[in-house]
Automatic annotation (TrEMBL):
<feature type="domain" description="Gylcosyl hydrolase 115 C-terminal">
    <location>
        <begin position="806"/>
        <end position="978"/>
    </location>
</feature>
<dbReference type="GO" id="GO:0016787">
    <property type="term" value="F:hydrolase activity"/>
</dbReference>
<dbReference type="InterPro" id="IPR041437">
    <property type="entry name" value="GH115_C"/>
</dbReference>
<dbReference type="InterPro" id="IPR029018">
    <property type="entry name" value="Hex-like_dom2"/>
</dbReference>
<protein>
    <submittedName>
        <fullName>Glycosyl hydrolase 115 family protein</fullName>
    </submittedName>
</protein>
<dbReference type="InterPro" id="IPR042301">
    <property type="entry name" value="GH115_sf"/>
</dbReference>
<dbReference type="Pfam" id="PF15979">
    <property type="entry name" value="Glyco_hydro_115"/>
</dbReference>
<dbReference type="InterPro" id="IPR031924">
    <property type="entry name" value="GH115"/>
</dbReference>
<dbReference type="Pfam" id="PF17829">
    <property type="entry name" value="GH115_C"/>
</dbReference>
<keyword id="KW-0732">Signal</keyword>
<feature type="signal peptide">
    <location>
        <begin position="1"/>
        <end position="18"/>
    </location>
</feature>
<keyword id="KW-0378">Hydrolase</keyword>
Length: 981
């Protein structure tokens, strides 16, 4: 009965869908629809109609007539109050425009049958305003398969001989965010050079021709705002009078960054010789003259005027008195004067919204009581690394000017730049932006996307969220969005593989951005440092990351084979270059770290790692050269620079080469030991593998390497049938200098310890009683030399662990991925859920909803807060350190924290706070690692079963990983792999 009901319901839905949609033949049976607009409508409507006509031709090969009304099938588009044709349609066909009229950027698309003599069908697009109409026309481009990146990333559409649209009578808009756009920033190494030397040499700069292409992209992405490029290498936007005309033609609103008050580019427009010092306390009249000039120049154009003031070159404002009260009062005076200037230079009907960006020291002034008129939008910023610093509280959410967001996916500054590739995790951006929206940032969204390329996907995701946030409610929204994006650009058959590839790319970049792999810093620039990745614990973090990036390169090359020829250039730009660039920058450094590490052990393989490091560097050079000089026959020459600011991370690698041994001998190094096996040392700790644990099923490696230049044969002889070696013999020579073999255990064959109800006690995991430990080994034989490597197995037969599903102590710690809880308990107002696609493991546990009340009293925490519980089994007891790793977000309100509480068993909860302030050393480490790690002391009172509890204190806290350390955790970048049964 249930199946029948579902079938009937599905049939009803399909029937209803069919009844609510009407087919419109754009190109069919030799007939081609025309596009008709009123010549008196806005210029952007004409531009959009021309774009649509070109898109139809690109898809079908057929030329669409524009501005004529003789075709049997017509697209008729216009703006309410501006188009006589649309007004006539509304009147003649009783079209209800009540849901459009007076709305912001809203449009209706519908089909009218036989609207007049000679017209069989009219596809009618009615816009509430000029942008609404333009978006409506370009909605048809989306319907026929055109990507917004058809020019900026050469995404060619799939050719179709016929274009028949299924049109639903539907209202689109109003957008979730009123002003949505991008900031062209740090353009020195890409966009400016490409424009000046390639695309717009007649201007020698980013000028009106370049901006026209940028504005077309924004229209296709349903954006309406830009903060123009503003570095000294680029002349100010208003230096070229035509720029503002082009912007207005495309209906693009001009805004400016926190360092550019009143649409003035201080970098380029302030001249000390003629204008004096740029300080308001001593030279306000000269500064106001510049403000007045810009206000008059832009009076007839849409703009968002940033009020307030910073110093030159994005520095703090210079004031006479060095105290906060004086600085606040002076800033209030600046804003009052700016508003008077705008009031005197505002034309009727031209909106002049104002924005205030509380960024860096300006945030401090705002928090110190700055009196800001409530009609000014508060534009909150992230901390430059993707984490929103602060959002509107309940009172601020009532401001008539609302609030906005300025967000980075590209950044120049301390602790380190990331200007080359897009390495901001899209799921993190989704999490932070939906949070910002929830806390009232709905008026302005600006994305600092650097040179546009290679930030294409995150730009589209950001602007799609700003257009309709309701379609991004769940954690899987980003993956679904990426699947659709990939299908549109590269075909449905490739979408899943590409999306999975990019999610893996983003997971690795989240653990460490490519640009941070040198462990160096900027401001001041430092040399490369020692990596925090361990090379001998936990399976070798360096080696595992090498393998992960080699897999990325292999996967992207494999997928590329399936990409149709007409889409290969797009695939190269959007997928291949970012993947191979990031992976090779990683490999350059990872192999360099390998080189130095193995050279210290005297391995001849150090030369191989040096070669591989240099090969990775050359691969980046080769790919970048192809991007600039071969791709699209040089269309993108100068757009891509592989070494922005020429920082140490981008430099050619150096190498360490060990001296060669006179005679060849077999060298050995075991997992968990920094030093190689030394046969001359009796009872060396470096000749025994870490203990194998029956409950975690470990595997460990042994590196065999050549010391010397002659070929050497080796053989591995396990001394027990339960020891499994991945390879039992081989040769080392100049072409094969080292080999890693893996040791595992056949758990069906290994002897079990005695039957006990509980585990043994004792703090030293290596001193487990013999009844629980089975010892044997492997003999390695080469020439006349035999080396014995000890193998110890912990294999007790404990009834208490039969059918146990929790975590278990291994080598003196318990490691847990936060999403793998044993159970959870919902709170009165909140609950724990999982976000997929972010975090070190690709998942995090997050407490929602974000506006749930914070609980800070211990009794209230225990009674009201949601709980995560993790079962674990300990073989030791005593005081332990519980480490929690969280995503390093900030509290939405600067008066709260980013807190949870933890306890083992029935202990009182201990509150843990991940919040940082300013640019502290803790914050720097957090953003470099995308992790905030805190620890608390707890007591495990007996060996046996226990329970770790985590309570929400502040909603929105995101827990990534957990480590319960009995004293066995060795130094590593990430927590060790899970110790799960």
């Amino acid at each position: 009965m249930t199946k029948l009901f579902k079938l009937l319901f599905l049939m009803f839905c399909l029937s209803a869908w069919g009844q609510n949609t009407i087919q419109f033949p754009l190109v069919k049976n030799g007939e081609i629809a025309s596009i008709h607009i009123d010549k008196k409508d806005a210029e952007v409507v004409r531009i959009a109609s021309k774009i649509l006509a070109n898109d139809v031709k690109n898809v079908s090969g057929k030329t669409v007539a524009t501005h004529q009304n003789k075709a049997a099938y017509q697209i008729i588009a216009g703006t309410l109050g501006k188009s006589k044709v649309i007004q006539q349609f509304v009147k003649n066909h009783n079209i209800d425009v009540s849901q459009i009229k007076g709305k912001w950027e809203t449009y209706n698309i519908q089909v009218i049958n036989n609207p007049s003599k000679g017209i069989k069908k009219a596809l009618v697009i009615i816009g509430s305003d000029r942008r609404g109409t333009a978006y409506g026309l370009l909605e048809i481009s989306r319907m026929i398969g055109m990507s917004p990146w058809e020019w900026w990333a050469d995404v060619n559409p799939e050719k179709q001989q016929e274009l028949v649209l299924n049109i639903e009578n539907k209202i689109y808009g109003a957008p979730s965010v009123k002003y949505r756009g991008i900031f062209l920033n740090d353009e020195d190494w890409g966009l400016q050079r490409w424009a000046a030397l390639n695309y717009e040499p007649e201007t020698g700069d980013i000028g009106p021709k370049t901006y026209a292409k940028v504005f077309e992209l924004l229209l296709r992405l349903r954006a309406n705002t830009i903060w123009p490029a503003m570095h000294k290498c680029t002349k100010a936007f208003y230096h070229y009078p035509e720029n503002k005309i082009v912007a207005d033609n495309y209906a693009i609103v001009i805004g400016s960054s926190h360092a550019e008050p009143m649409l003035c580019n201080i970098n380029a427009e302030w001249h000390h010789e003629t204008m004096g010092d740029y300080r308001y306390d001593t030279n306000s009249e000269s500064i106001k003259s510049l403000f007045k000039k810009r206000a008059k120049e832009t009076a007839n154009f849409e703009g968002i005027y940033t009020v307030g003031m910073r110093g030159e070159h994005d520095s703090p404002m210079i004031v006479g008195e060095d105290d906060t009260d004086s600085q606040v009062k002076l800033l209030e005076k600046v804003i009052t004067d700016q508003r008077e200037i705008l009031k005197a230079n505002t034309k009727r009907g031209v909106a002049k919204p104002q924005a205030f960006v509380p960024y860096k020291e300006v945030l401090h002034y705002y928090q110190s009581g700055l009196d800001l008129p409530e009609d000014i939008s508060l534009v909150w910023t992230d901390d430059n690394y993707g984490y929103m610093r602060q959002l509107s509280n309940e009172d601020e959410q009532k401001r008539s000017g609302g609030a906005g967001v300025y967000y980075h996916t590209s950044y120049w500054g301390r602790p380190h730049d990331y200007l080359w590739l897009n390495s901001t995790n899209p799921v993190l951006m989704w999490e932070e932006m939906t949070k910002a929206y929830e806390f009232g940032s709905q008026n302005i969204w600006i994305l600092n996307c650097g040179d546009i390329k290679p930030h294409e996907y995150n730009i589209e995701l950001f602007l799609d969220m700003a257009w309709n946030i309701d379609t991004f409610k769940n954690d899987d929204s980003v993956k679904n969005h990426h699947l659709n994006w990939s299908a549109n650009a590269f075909g449905k058959e490739n979408a899943k593989a590409i999306t999975n590839l990019m999610f893996q790319y983003n997971r690795l970049a989240f653990q460490r951005r490519p640009e941070f792999m040198a462990w160096s810093s900027v401001e001041p620039v430092t040399k490369s440092g020692e990596t925090e990745l361990t090379q001998y614990h936990y399976g070798d973090e360096v080696g595992k990351r090498i393998q992960a990036h080699q897999n990325l390169i292999s996967d992207v090359n494999e997928i590329q084979k399936n990409i149709p020829a007409y889409r290969k250039d797009a695939f190269y730009q959007l997928i291949h270059y970012p993947i191979t660039g990031a992976s090779n920058l990683n490999l350059k450094w990872l192999y360099s770290y390998k080189n130095k590490f193995v050279a210290a052990q005297g391995r001849q393989s150090a030369s191989d790692f040096a070669t591989k490091s240099f090969d990775a560097f050359k691969a980046i050079q080769k790919e970048t050269d192809y991007f600039n000089n071969t791709l699209q026959n040089g269309k993108w020459k100068h757009i891509m620079t592989m070494a922005p600011r020429h920082l140490p991370v981008f430099a050619e690698p150096t190498a360490t080469i060990p001296l060669k041994e006179k005679t060849s001998i077999l060298g050995m190094a075991l997992e968990s030991y920094q030093m190689e096996v030394n046969d001359a040392v009796i009872n060396s700790y470096a000749d025994v593998l870490p203990v194998f644990n029956a409950y975690t099923k470990n595997k460990y490696y042994i590196d065999l390497f050549l010391k010397g230049k002659d070929e050497l044969e080796w053989e591995a002889v396990p001394k027990a049938d339960w020891i499994i070696v991945s390879k039992t013999s081989g040769k080392l020579n100049k072409n094969h200098l080292e080999e890693r073999i893996w040791v595992t255990i056949d758990w069906d064959k290994v002897p079990k310890g005695e039957n006990r109800k509980e585990a043994p006690l004792g703090h030293d995991y290596q001193l487990i009683p013999p009844s629980f430990k089975v010892n044997s080994g492997i003999d390695f034989i080469s020439k006349d030399k035999k080396t014995h490597i000890g193998v110890s197995v912990f294999n007790p037969k404990l009834k208490v662990l039969e059918d146990y599903k929790g975590f278990v102590e291994d080598k003196g710690f318990v490691s847990i991925n936060a999403e793998n809880f044993s159970r959870k308990v919902d709170g009165k107002e909140a609950k724990w859920t999982t976000f997929n696609g972010v975090g070190y493991t690709g998942n995090v546990s997050v407490a929602l909803p974000r506006k749930a009340k914070s609980e800070i009293e211990l009794e209230a925490i225990k009674q009201n807060s949601p709980i995560l519980e993790y079962d674990f089994y300990a073989f030791n007891f005593g005081e332990v350190d519980v480490f929690l790793q969280a995503i390093p977000t900030h509290a939405p309100n600067n008066k709260t924290g980013v807190r949870c509480a933890i306890a083992i068993d029935d202990a009182e909860p201990v509150i843990v706070d991940f919040q940082t302030f300013g640019r502290s050393d803790a914050w720097k480490q957090n953003v470099l690692k995308n992790a905030s790690v805190q620890s608390v002391k707890q007591i495990v009172n007996t060996a046996g079963k226990h329970k770790l509890k985590i309570w929400m204190v502040d909603a929105g806290v995101m827990i990534d990983q957990i480590l319960i350390d009995f004293g066995g955790w060795k130094k590593s970048y990430a927590f060790p792999p899970e110790t799960k049964m």
